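Narrative summary of target 7.
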Amino acid sequence: GVELAAGGDEELAGVELDLVGVGPDVDAAGACLDERLELLGVELRLILGQGLLVSEGDLWKRQRKLEQPVFHRDRMEAKAAVMSACVESMLERWRARTEVDLVPEMMRLAFDIVGRTLMGADIVGEMEEVERVLADAVEFVYRHMEAPIKLPPKLPIRTHRRFRECMRVLEGVVDRVIAHHRASGEAGTLL
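Modeled conformation, tokenized:
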């Protein structure tokens, strides 16, 4: 096994981990992981389309070149101020509470930061609709990935119909965000 060093967390010091699936043939384990990641990328395209996260080759290079200016150092400094404002807004909401459920709060914070910094839009109002369908869409993709026989998502099966409905909702959110962005005329975003 692998022993963890203290690194500031005394509770984990000396804990031994067994790296499951990594035997003497590390190359085979790496090849297996590469195969699983490739499959995951194929399945994620069901939700993400041909975006930068799952594209490859020339398409990836073209998308990367288009998106790179948004991440330029000068723009990132301005985005850091927006991120800080998002955190301040969250903390202000928390001041009136005695308890805070961190999972939805962190999701809302991430949603707010992504919307404002990458899309130039306040998309928090869309979060409830996204949350309502995203878990079902992700579960469909996971089950599809694990299925021994991959049935096309267009088949009129109950789970497939639900997935397509989830995707219509998500596409509607994306369409509204894009329309709002176009109306604002803001530049320097991924939209």
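The helical segments are 26-48, 57-67, 73-95, 102-118, 127-146, 158-184.
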